[in-house]
Amino acid sequence: MHVECLNMHEVDHDQQYVLSCELILFGQQGMDIQSCLDDFVIVLGLTCPMCNETLVCKTTFVQAPLLLVLDLGQHILTINCLIHITCREGHQVAYNLKGVIYYANQHFTACVVTGTGQTWFHDSMFTGNSLLYDSEFASSRVCTQ
Prior knowledge:
13 strands; 4-stranded antiparallel sheet
């Protein structure tokens, strides 16, 4: 990730490399995850010393991680079942949705998507150590293509 001036002035001499598979997305309501990843920019509270334009922090992938974890926080984004990451070398890597964890009020529930597309629901308060088959999850309630 590196800091950029929208007017292309040189402002960041020290790019940072992060070796993490977790990304925190700050999208607008109505956006989908793929759109956020395609333009993975965070507006900073800093301005360019040359033109006074607002600076942004832009994230690019040097190489694709084996696992990609997305933290949506309180942002309501449309979840894509399939997303693509473009790496610096220009090649794209596809990721299929494998699970969603919902967390609120000191409690979480989870949905797991198997390699064959089956979906399973887990909520330890109601299901204990078991998963419940949930055929509706990926296709109709959560994902967009």
